[in-house]
Recover the amino acids of this structure.
C-alpha cells in the first residue's frame, strides 16, 4: 500500500487493473481497516480517501472515515464512482 496525503485527502494505491473487482474490494477493505488504526481525527471528524490501482491509475472507490461523538471510528467505501 502506498499512501499520499494532500489537501484533497488521502490517496491509497492498492491492487492492479488485472485483479478482479471482488479482489480489489477486499484489498480496499483491508487497507481501510489498517488506516482506521492510524488516522488522526484531532482536527476534523471526517476524512476522505481515494483508492487507486497501482499500475494504471484507475479509481477503485472513495472512502469516508468518520469519528462519531462516542469516539467510535467507522468508514464507508463507495464503489459506485469506480473508473474500472
Amino acid at each position: 500500500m502506498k499512501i499520499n496525503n494532500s489537501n484533497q485527502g488521502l490517496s491509497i494505491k492498492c491492487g492492479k487493473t488485472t485483479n478482479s473487482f471482488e479482489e480489489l474490494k477486499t484489498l480496499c477493505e483491508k487497507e481501510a481497516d489498517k488506516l482506521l488504526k492510524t488516522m488522526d481525527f484531532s482536527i476534523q471528524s471526517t476524512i476522505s480517501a481515494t483508492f487507486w490501482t497501482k499500475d494504471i491509475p484507475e479509481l477503485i472507490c472513495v472512502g469516508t472515515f468518520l469519528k462519531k461523538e462516542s469516539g467510535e471510528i467507522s468508514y464507508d467505501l463507495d464503489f459506485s464512482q469506480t473508473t474500472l
In short: Residues 45 and 70 are 12 Å apart (CA to CA). The chain has a mean pLDDT of 89. Strands lie at 2-6, 9-13, 46-52, 59-67, 73-78. The two ends are 19 Å apart (CA to CA).
